[in-house]
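Handoff note, outgoing to incoming analyst
You'll be picking up this chain. Sequence as last confirmed:
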Amino acid sequence: MVMGGVWLTSSASAHQIDSKAQVASGAHPDTTRAEPLPDTPAYGTGAEAKTAENADDHLQRKSGSVFTSRDSLASRNAVRAQVNAALGDQLAMDRANQLQATGEQIDVAAATAVRDVRDKAMQADLAKVRSEASRIAKEKKAALARLKQMRSRVGSGGGVSSKDLDGINMNSGTTPLPRGTYRVGAHWGMRGLWARWHTGQDFGAPIGTPIRAVTNGIVGKPTSGGWAGINVVIHHGNGGSTLYAHMSRRVVSPGEFVKTGQVIGYVGMTGRTFGAHLHFEYYAPGATPGDVYTSSNPMRFLAALGVRP
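Most recent structure output, in case you need it:
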């Protein structure tokens, strides 16, 4: 039968293929047939688990190393920042010290230059005053003679009272400015921006404050030194003289007799001055008024008059 023949042929072919498959399976497994996979052990057991564990340990060690490195880097950066900050502070301090030293050098140089200029100007003033020394000496001699004459007329109707005589005899005195109108400034003998040293006593006061004769005397000719500006010189009965400098104006004239406390002028800023004040000087007997480096401490003179500014 045809059907039988076909079946027989198919059966023979199938048997042949199966035989070939059996022969081939010895060297090459047959992959054409579906077979169940063997049981796969769970992850974390056996060799695979050991390998995974080693990998995890390695990863942790590596991660730890990275974190440690990062921490060390951060620590080093922090230290470096502190060192840089300290260096920056030190550099800033050094720079500030250098600037301060430079500033001080500039100040010293400027002060020296100012002193040199003022000293040169003062030398020119002193040359003028010293050229008039003989005239000033005659003026003082005449003033003393006049004061002696005034003493002889006391009580004889000559117009000189016993109060005036106290002044002539240096028995009374007053402050050169009214109390409460001034502040005591630079003292005699101080050193600073002056040509050499300060030759009088300063009394700081507003412009226009009245200036008074500290004791009786005869008004002399103003000093020719330009440093003093508008000034008044008064010769006293002890042979000494007082000088009142930097006035805005004077209200007495040479040869005039002035009494203790009489207004002789007003505070100003004339001549070489740093501000409004009275510069008050005293010249002992034998010294030339205006020859500034022959002056004496005016506060001692006032103290001798019983005056404490």
